[in-house]
Amino acid sequence: MGKSAMDCVTKGNDFIHLCQPDTRKSCGACCGLYNYADSSRETLTAKLRGRTRFFQETVRSPADLMAFSEAVTGREPGARLYEVIYCCEYLGFLDDDERRVGCLLHPLQNGGVDMRDVSFYGLDLCNGHFCPSYHFISREEQQALIRIIDDWYLYGLCITDIDLVKEFFRFVSEGIGETVRPERLTGRLKDIALDFFALKTSWLFRSPDANRFGKYYFDGSQYMISHIDYDALGCDRSRFDRILLSLTSRFETVGKLREAEEIIQDKIDAFNACYTMEVMGT
Questions:
Q1: How do residues 19-41 score in pLDDT, each as one tens digit?
Q2: With contact defined as beta carbons under 8 Å apart, do 62 and 118 qualify?
Q3: Which whole number is the average pLDDT over 164-173?
Q4: Which residue has the higher pLDDT, 260 or 115?
């Protein structure tokens, strides 16, 4: 949504603003960023770049917004994964380095003028919505992920995937015998953790279904949760089931499932070995 850290000041000093956590990345998932039929990094980057430049060139006051909206929605491909989820045309880049995505209507982007009332969701919802990750991902997990990922595209995909985040930190915490300390996630340890979360964009066993988004799919009227048919594979439910579903997995054979499990286990083992050596000194 189109929030900033200033919008969240009433939440208290311990509040972590997941939408705009720092100057290195941000998340635009609630604005429909990943809801396009083509949500590749290259396509979304071009889309956001074009909107941002067009906004800067043409919008001088709220009176210019209708023409902006009509022009953007008219020239951009409109195919979405889920038609009932709105893709906001006012989402763009907030900085010249194109590291942060966010609301082009926000007052911090327009000399103090708040123009979010014209958006599909409206000012109140944009200003007050907090996705489930705020509630279900622990503070330590939030801090850790913010330290690990400095890329808007990958960060948005991961911070909104509660199962992927919580399962990774559950497995590594069980392996090292303690909760991962976010301040330790630097250097090689950070790189190893990033290598795991990068599976979100490089997974070899991704389902080709066009309407899959992580573990969810859409049947035309509501979200449904996908399942891996372990009976058909002739095996028990994988210990990594939640991670596999988050990665939009599909397996034709049990051999492919075991190959996928080995990839995940190797990355967890690599993190635990590095953490044990660098942090615990053993």
A1: 999 999 999 998 989 988 888 99
A2: yes
A3: 97
A4: 260
Whole-number Å distance between alpha carbons of 147 and 141: 10
20/111 same-domain check = yes
Report pLDDT for 94.
94
CB atoms within 10 A of CB 94: 24
Average pLDDT, rounded, for the chain: 86
Same domain, yes or no: 32 and 109 = yes
Report percent pLDDT > 70 for the chain.
Answer: 82
* Same domain flag for 91 and 204: no
Does 39 lie in the same domain as 113? yes
Domain containing residue 121: 5-131
Assess if residue 143 is contained within a domain.
Answer: no
Question: Please, how many CA atoms are within 13 Å of residue 121, restricted to the half-sphere of its CB?
Answer: 24
Parallel, antiparallel, or unpaired for β 212-213 and 101-103? unpaired
